[in-house]
């Protein structure tokens, strides 16, 4: 039976290096592998060939480092980031209610019924909603998150992120998961006040400003290979704000599962090794609670089997 392991990026005050994690120990892959990969992305670029070597190292590696002595960075520096919106049924219903115009005559019950029908139709027509994020928004799983001065409604969005292990172009949902190397945790922060353009409603959403400030995507702590995630559609996501649970949901509530999302993105573009496909956030965001992020807030995010990230908010 294979020894469970994960991948990450670490440093000791010098250049970051890719590491293999087994419990509380880390093997420096830049030294342990004969081809000396400098980054986790380099490992993913030859994922099929690297896997047997990683399994062997998990059992027999020497010169282990103490995990507690290392700084943990985001596990992967992706080339591309694809983000799924409106993919958890209850979350979308809550957002529809929260974003109703002030002069809207629709009752909350009517708004929820309309949103539920919209989600059912999207599922029937197989139309996920995906947009592009910027790799420059990624930060480490324990780094401070700077809240920009221009953002008045910063919000949290805990998400399961699929990490691509081999190129995928026009793959079917049935074959899509064969292109996924593993999974990690993402907290896809959003400037709620900037999601919709106020200057011209017809333009629609402004994901550049709403999603991509530096540090708005804490990632990790680790990339857990798919072989150690038996069912990505049966994972529990929990986000706590200052110790209080705000999001607590199963990936079962997704409208479009991981395979359908990966397949959908691949119909338009080519997914590359290391690319991230964020799968949407469940109900329980700050907008729902009427409590947005503030200076000093601490977010703790956990997904079954993927570890925990802990980030503190700091006002710019």
UniProtKB/TrEMBL annotation:
<dbReference type="GO" id="GO:0016787">
    <property type="term" value="F:hydrolase activity"/>
</dbReference>
<dbReference type="GO" id="GO:0044281">
    <property type="term" value="P:small molecule metabolic process"/>
</dbReference>
<dbReference type="InterPro" id="IPR011234">
    <property type="entry name" value="Fumarylacetoacetase-like_C"/>
</dbReference>
<keyword id="KW-0378">Hydrolase</keyword>
<protein>
    <submittedName>
        <fullName>Hydrolase</fullName>
    </submittedName>
</protein>
<comment type="similarity">
    <text>Belongs to the FAH family.</text>
</comment>
<feature type="domain" description="Fumarylacetoacetase-like C-terminal">
    <location>
        <begin position="81"/>
        <end position="312"/>
    </location>
</feature>
<dbReference type="Pfam" id="PF01557">
    <property type="entry name" value="FAA_hydrolase"/>
</dbReference>
<dbReference type="InterPro" id="IPR036663">
    <property type="entry name" value="Fumarylacetoacetase_C_sf"/>
</dbReference>
<dbReference type="InterPro" id="IPR051121">
    <property type="entry name" value="FAH"/>
</dbReference>
<dbReference type="GO" id="GO:0046872">
    <property type="term" value="F:metal ion binding"/>
</dbReference>
<keyword id="KW-0479">Metal-binding</keyword>
């Amino acid at each position: 039976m294979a020894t469970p392991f994960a991948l990450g990026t670490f440093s000791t005050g010098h250049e970051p290096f890719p590491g293999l994690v087994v419990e509380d120990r880390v093997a420096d892959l830049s030294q342990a592998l004969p081809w000396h990969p400098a980054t986790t992305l380099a490992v993913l670029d030859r994922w099929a060939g690297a896997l047997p070597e990683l399994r062997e190292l998990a059992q027999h590696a020497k010169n282990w480092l103490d995990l507690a002595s290392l700084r943990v960075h985001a596990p992967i520096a992706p080339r591309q980031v694809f983000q799924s919106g409106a993919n958890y049924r209850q979350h979308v219903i809550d957002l529809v209610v929260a974003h109703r115009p002030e002069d809207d005559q629709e009752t909350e019950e009517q708004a929820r019924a309309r949103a539920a029908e919209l989600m059912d139709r999207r599922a029937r027509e197989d139309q996920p909603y995906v947009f592009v994020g910027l790799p420059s928004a990624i930060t480490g799983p324990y780094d401070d998150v700077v809240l920009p001065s221009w953002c008045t409604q910063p919000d949290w969005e805990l998400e399961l992120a699929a990490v691509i292990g081999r190129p995928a172009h026009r793959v079917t949902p049935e074959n899509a998961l064969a292109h996924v190397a593993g999974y990690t945790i993402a907290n896809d922060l959003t400037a709620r006040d900037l999601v919709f353009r106020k200057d011209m409603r017809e333009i629609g959403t402004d994901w550049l400003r709403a999603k991509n400030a530096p540090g708005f995507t804490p990632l990790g702590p680790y990339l857990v290979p798919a072989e150690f995630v038996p069912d990505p559609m049966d994972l529990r996501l929990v986000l706590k704000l200052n110790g209080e649970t705000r999001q607590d949901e199963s990936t079962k509530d997704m409208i479009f599962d991981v395979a359908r999302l990966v397949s959908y993105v691949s119909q338009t573009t080519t997914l590359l090794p290391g690319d991230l496909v964020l799968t949407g956030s469940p109900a329980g965001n700050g907008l729902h609670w009427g409590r947005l992020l503030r200076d000093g807030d601490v977010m703790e995010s956990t997904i079954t089997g993927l570890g925990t990230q802990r980030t503190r908010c700091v006002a710019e």
